[in-house]
Specification:
GO terms for molecular function: malate dehydrogenase (decarboxylating) (NAD+) activity; metal ion binding; NAD binding. The protein is built from 29 helices and 18 strands. With about 625 residues, the protein is of the alpha/beta class. It has four domains: about 100 residues, no CATH class; about 200 residues, Rossmann fold; about 190 residues, NAD(P)-binding Rossmann-like Domain (Rossmann fold, 3-Layer(aba) Sandwich), CATH 3.40.50.720; about 80 residues, no CATH class. The strands form five sheets. It has a seven-stranded mixed beta sheet with strand order 11-10-9-12-13-14-17, with helices on both faces. Bound molecules: nicotinamide-adenine-dinucleotide, (2S)-2-hydroxybutanedioic acid and magnesium ion.
């Protein structure tokens, strides 16, 4: 078995010990680090490697990462974390017994990128592009991330929403090669041992789904694996989490999607979904096993259906911390950021959030999570929480949540948002007529729900209608950017869950389409949790992150209708999010790692420290072990 460790300067004694024991080490250090000197003094091979690298006309800028491996020959090429295709140096070819196994001419990363991108452009459909990128990820980690990061705006919609949705729907048909781990009902007795089948001891982030509500595409069972894989690729590209230290997981508890279950190529257990106490107890077993093996890893619950999402979060957020639910908490974070930023765009103050009248379509875990997070942001501006709840009007598939009859099992969160001043069951349009909202949120998963009537009604009562259809994928968006701008004569502020292009109005003015997606929040959180070893994820961390995201753009951009930086700036956003989360963790005494003084002295010191921890997609040094 090949063992891999990633470590920073602080962990150097452990690294040196492990190297002697034949582990592979990924060592990240700032260029000036004394560890670099220490290491080069202990490794003649590495010194030689650096000299050879320089002689080869500086083909690539090397990272400080050091990979030590026992693999030789084809097994190096078949390991994506070691493989560098035509980019192996002369020395690596010699040391790793690659002579003759790769074409003779060494090429730089830039040339590899050129070749890959020209093949990418020849892919016909978005799904072909998704598959092409998946295969690249399986082949060469550095090249995959370098290409993803350099072309983020173009490729994020392929590896993430919306195309990842289609890739999940067709997973059973396009499956090629395994990635991540599957824990099924049938493995239950083995959870404690099977976690050791995963070769990496140092897992930083786990994204887990049971596939019960994939985007707005419903129950996709075991087909959902592309969601954790996609989310983790954003942790890596967007916040520099080391790819080796991420683990995508699917819990196969069956599926109630009959079409899929009966399909001969379906790869999950062909049985009905486990529910109730048995389901909860299985998840209990899984999380205990995971915690036993990886006590500090951040666990992100993703796309669990609303009947269990909040229950699981409550059950584990303290007992098995650090844990969070992406659809509830980090969607809440980006929604708060979007509203705060829209206040700036309207020339208002953050405290004016307390005067918003918010209509939200959708009362699932995302809708309620978003409204709860905005209520907390209002409370943080000095309002009573009760008054904060009073600013919301939530409409679900049965109309306005009012005080009519409702189930005894209703969640306390949902109950808090019931209105007593309007009849239960009013339609979305009726609610808008009566309430005259300033903000309209869409978390219903119902494409086209914001009809022309609905948007025109809203636009009658406010100068700047704030319209955020946040459902994913694009087909589930409550309206498109074009519709929102067209039906409001360009007055809307617009943000959607999946990306839409900007819209040019008939008079030639460009209207900006923002992406209000939790991608702005979870990668930075992961960076902070990993770098500081944060022991628990708190609501205050998300609020701090939201406030930061809302202030990243200069006034002149916000006045144009841009609410936050584009996704191509995600690494910069993530560092700022991480710094805000880190500061809350420091203040709340939730950090396990001792930080250098410089990181504690100033915000700049903290962001510098966090930036230094980020993995970069560059070829490092491979040392034969
Ligand atoms: N932008 C983001 O970052 C982000 C993050 C998480 C979730 N989401 C999206 O939010 C959506 C909802 O997620 P969820 O987990 O809450 O799903 P869910 O299925 O549990 O909830 C959907 C809610 O919409 C309501 N609804 C259905 N039809 C409606 C209608 N005609 N009018 C009003 N309400 C209606 C349902 O009653 C339910 O309350 C999904 O599309 C998901 O992709 C977006
Ligand atoms: O995955 C996304 O794009 C956002 C979100 O987590 C969702 O479930 O829709
Ligand atoms: Mg999700």
């Amino acid at each position: 078995m090949r063992n891999i460790i990633r470590a920073s300067f602080a962990k150097r004694p452990a690294i040196l010990g492990s190297l002697r024991n034949g582990f592979v080490a990924h060592v990240r250090t700032p260029p000036s680090s004394p560890f670099r000197t220490l290491f080069t003094r202990t490794s003649a091979a590495l010194q030689h490697e650096e000299r050879i690298g320089a002689l080869e006309c500086g083909l690539d800028e090397r990272s400080d990462e050091v990979l030590k491996t026992k693999h030789r020959g084809l097994s190096v090429i078949h390991d994506p974390s070691l493989n560098r295709g035509s980019g192996f140096s002369v020395d690596e070819r010699e040391r790793l017994l690659l002579r003759g196994l790769v074409p003779p001419r060494r090429q730089a990363l830039e040339q590899q990128i050129e070749r890959v991108m020209s093949t990418y452009e020849r892919q016909r459909t978005d799904l072909d592009k998704f598959q092409f990128m998946s295969m690249l990820m399986d082949r060469n980690t550095v090249l995959f991330y370098r290409i993803l990061m350099d072309n983020f705006e173009k490729l994020a919609p392929i590896v993430y929403t919306p195309v990842v949705g289609e890739a999940c729907q067709k997973f059973h048909a396009i499956y090629r090669r395994t990635r991540g781990m599957y824990f099924s009902i049938e493995d239950r007795a083995h959870f404690r041992t099977m976690v050791y089948n995963w070769p990496v001891d140092d897992v930083d982030v786990i994204v887990v789904t049971d596939g019960s509500r994939v985007l707005a595409l419903g129950d996709l069972g075991c087909n959902s694996m592309n969601i954790p894989i996609g989310k983790l690729s954003l942790y890596v590209s967007g916040a520099g989490i080391s790819p080796t230290n991420t683990l995508p997981v699917v819990l196969d508890v069956g599926t109630d999607n009959e079409e899929l279950r009966d399909h001969p190529l379906y790869l999950g257990l062909p049985r009905k979904r486990l529910r109730g106490d048995e389901y909860i107890s299985l998840i209990d077993d899984w999380i205990s096993a995971v915690r036993h093996r990886w006590p500090n890893a951040l666990i992100q619950f993703e796309d669990f259906s609303s009947d269990v999402a909040a229950t699981l979060l409550k059950r584990y957020r303290h007992k098995h911390a650090p844990v969070f639910n992406d659809d509830i908490q980090s969607t809440g974070c980006i929604a708060v950021a979007s509203v705060l930023s829209s206040l700036r765009a309207r020339g208002l103050e953050p405290s004016d959030i307390a005067h918003e009248k918010i209509v939200c379509a959708g009362a699932g875990s995302a809708g309620l999570g978003v409204c709860e997070a905005i209520a907390q942001a209002i409370e943080a501006e000095g309002q009573a929480l009760e008054d904060a709840y009073n600013r919301f009007y939530i409409v679900d598939e049965n109309g306005l949540l009012g005080t009519g009859t409702h189930s005894k099992n209703e969640s306390p969160t949902r109950r808090k948002f019931r209105r007593s001043d309007l009849p239960a069951g009013l339609s979305l349009k009726e609610v808008i007529e009566k309430v005259k909202p300033t903000v309209l949120l869409g978390l219903s998963g119902r494409g086209g729900l914001f009809t022309k009537d609905v948007i025109k009604e809203m636009a009658k009562h406010v100068d700047v209608p704030v319209i955020f259809p946040m459902s994913n994928p694009s087909t589930a968006s409550e309206c498109t950017a074009e519709q929102a701008f067209d039906w409001t004569s360009g007055r809307a502020l617009f943000a959607s869950g999946s990306p839409f292009g900007n819209v040019t109005m008939p008079n030639g003015v460009v209207k900006y389409s923002n992406q209000a997606n939790n991608v702005y929040s979870f990668p930075g959180l992961g960076l902070a949790v990993t770098a500081l070893r944060i022991s628990c994820v708190t609501d205050l961390m998300f609020l701090a992150a939201a406030r930061t995201i809302a202030t990243l753009l200069p006034d002149e951009d916000v006045q144009k209708g841009l609410l936050f930086p584009g996704v191509n700036k995600l690494r910069n956003v993530s560092v700022e999010v991480a710094a805000s989360v880190a500061q809350v963790a420091i203040d709340q005494g939730l950090t396990g790692n001792v930080l250098p003084d410089s990181a504690l002295k100033s915000r700049e010191g903290l962001t510098d420290f966090l930036r230094e921890q980020m993995w970069e997609p560059k070829y490092g040094h491979i040392v034969a072990g």
